[in-house]
What we know:
The complex is a heterodimer of chains A (about 190) and B (about 160). Chain A has two domains: about 10-110, Rna Polymerase Sigma Factor, Chain: A (Orthogonal Bundle), CATH 1.10.1740; about 120-190, Arc Repressor Mutant, subunit A (Orthogonal Bundle), CATH 1.10.10.10. Helices cover about 65% and strands about 0% of the residues of chain A. Chain A has helices at about 20-30, 30-55, 55-75, 85-100, 125-140, 140-155, 160-165, 170-185. Chain B contains five helices and three strands, in the order ααααβββα. Chain B is elongated, with a radius of gyration of 51 Å. The model of chain B is unreliable at about 135-140 and about 150-155 (pLDDT under 50). Classes of the chains: A mainly alpha (about 190), B mainly alpha (about 160). The interface between A and B is large, with 47 and 27 residues.
Amino acid sequence: xxxxxxxxxxxxxxxxxxxxxxxxxxxxxxxxxxxxxxxxxxxxxxxxxxxxxxxxxxxxxxxxxxxxxxxxxxxxxxxxxxxxxxxxxxxxxxxxxxxxxxxxxxxxxxxxxxxxxxxxxxxxxxxxxxxxxxxxxxxxxxxxxxxxxxxxxxxxxxxxxxxxxxxxxxxxxxxxxxxxxxxxxxxxxxx
Amino acid sequence: xxxxxxxxxxxxxxxxxxxxxxxxxxxxxxxxxxxxxxxxxxxxxxxxxxxxxxxxxxxxxxxxxxxxxxxxxxxxxxxxxxxxxxxxxxxxxxxxxxxxxxxxxxxxxxxxxxxxxxxxxxxxxxxxxxxxxxxxxxxxxxxxxxxxxxxxxxxxxxxxxxxx
Lengths: 191, 164
């Protein structure tokens, strides 16, 4: 039997309708079901963010998984249960930064976009544009790329992106301003 | 507001924010800037749309992998904790056994107070003291003033400094 909030009668069974704060609190208490539910809710953001920051599907999956594991382990250090998502995204960003630092010597790999439509048929224009955008974003300096990915791809506001990136809102706005100028030039053909 | 200022402001304005009246007025008057503003709006739209197209990985394997990693790390950490505790206990036991089974040591020899044996030599007109300190070899001759010879008792001599 399920209760109104989506939590089942059994204490350690959590569903998608359960309020985030309660799930986070239960996960902190060690509920495996709550931990799984948290990851289920946010894995797409984590993998998407890592993929856009690293431009490598395998590395992005590893980074996202590692970030989720770390987040669950360090859940006790989360001050506000209602801010789990930006906190988790910050861990993902930091993990990606650390991977990028290690791989700095290597040349950047071709950006990947796993859900791109096939190159044939009417969707090919869309695929071409997606590829062009992915390449243009991947060609941005890392700080600008982080700001663009969080602001446009993940729909964060400037101050939320600043929170995730650990910088000021003004810095995020400046990065977005510079990135937009550059992207407008790079994507001229698609605008 | 001229075109340069207007475009600069347009670039700075993030999507979703209201345009200042001055820019809106300028855009009404200037076709070129209006085209520029539309281009920026299309860029914002394209970028936002690409975000929605981003990868949608399957949740189940990801959640399972994270769960396995968390459990694995927990087990490893617990095992490491137990290993550490076992090693510490073993070390403690060995130390305790060593302390308890140690053969009784003979009492440490108390440092012997050096004894000074002094002999008054009166063979000549200038009597000398001949002193010998236990544990050391050698003799030191000390001249004794003839006037003090009579008062020089053995007890006094025994308190001569060990430098003798």
